[in-house]
Amino acid sequence: MPEHTPPARQFISHDQVYSAFTPADAVAKLRDTLRNGFDPAGDQSRSAIPVENGEFLIMPSTTPSAFGIKLLSVAPPGYQDDLPRIQGSYLLFDGTTLSPKALIDGIAVTNLRTPAVSISCVYDFLADGSSESPAPLHVAIFGTGPQGRAHAATVESTFPHREISITFLSRTEPHDLEDRYTWVQAGSRQAREVTRAADLVLCTTTASEPILAKDDVSDSAVIVAVGSHSPQARELASDLVASSTVIVEDMGATLREGGDIIQPLNEGALRTSDLLSYADVVSGKVQVARDKPIVFKFTGMPWEDLALAEAIADKVSAQG
User: Fold this and answer.
1) Would you tell me how many other CB atoms lie within 10 Å of the CB of residue 47?
2) What is the pLDDT of residue 99?
3) Hey, how many other C-beta atoms are within 10 angstroms of the C-beta on 89?
């Protein structure tokens, strides 16, 4: 028998994650992490390994208080529609004891983290504190899959005191969309009317070619592109990126994986000196003018999952 028995590891299910931690909690945690001085440039790189029927993503990260790794499988669009496209687990370790602390449902962590990154970056551009009756927030979401719906839930959780209208855009109409949402067909005249009127446009698709261009949005629109994570794929046309204030998650990560930025750079439509960083925007180190559209592009970094995994484990533990 060993002299010391390590602490028991928690298993935290999908339902436990959402019972303990709201999408608004996730947004606040990421913003607090950046405002407390965390530098994403020092994070570990994500690895994507081809496997027989998809990809294997490996996302390690470390802080003084914890370290962990998210392991995900990602299936191509349309592969085994009866299963989630993304599956996996998050293994969290304690930074002091070096013992495994929790094994957390990976889909729950991912579906909290991804929209939390989106909204945590653009929060200040959407918050309306001008009066007791803030203006309605009009949101257009490309994609009706898990990430599109998770983004809708995060917007609603983060801005509970605003009137919010959410319109989903996709090629085919989903049959299980909640009654409070509207759907229009992507590419239609009505879709362009929706995006032109939107304060926030969220692109959460598997598209490899642009689905949104400059003339599709207003000069005051905030656009987030999250669907693609390879240099060859993008959701935003170069004319939109070139005419916008562009924020990127991290320069290194974006130039490895962010086709929405890599392709306009290669075309000469954009310069790296034009790019602002997520950390600088959230921490207030740079101020963003509202004289043209704002684009935020990210592909996901391991530190974001670690920050949320540690907070989730601590909250579930505190609840007993």
Assistant:
1) 12
2) 94
3) 15
pLDDT at 127: 83
Query: Alpha-carbon distance 270 to 144, whole Å?
Result: 30
Mean pLDDT of the chain: 93
pTM exceeding 0.85: yes
Select from 127, 120, 166 the least CA-distant residue to 26. 120
pLDDT at 130 over 60: no
* Tokens (6 digits) for 40: 């994403």
Could you tell me the two tokens for 130? 């001008």
Three-state SS sequence of the chain: CCCCCCCCCEEECHHHHHHHCCHHHHHHHHHHHHHCCCCHHHCCCCEEEEECCEEEEEEEEECCCEEEEEEEEECCCCCCCCCCCEEEEEEEEECCCCCEEEEEEHHHHHHHHHHHHHHHHHHHHHCCCCCCCCCCEEEEEECCCHHHHHHHHHHHHHCCCCCEEEEEEECCCCCCCCCCCEEEECCCHHHHHHHHHCCEEEECCCCCCCCECHHHCCCCCEEEECCCCCCCCCCECHHHHHCCEEEECCHHHHHHHCHHHHHHHHHCCCCHHHCEEHHHHHHCCCCCCCCCCEEEECCCCHHHHHHHHHHHHHHHHHCC
Provide the pLDDT for residue 1: 47
Q: What is the rounded CA–CA span in Å between residue 75 and residue 281?
A: 33
Q: How far is CA 276 from the centre of its chain?
A: 17
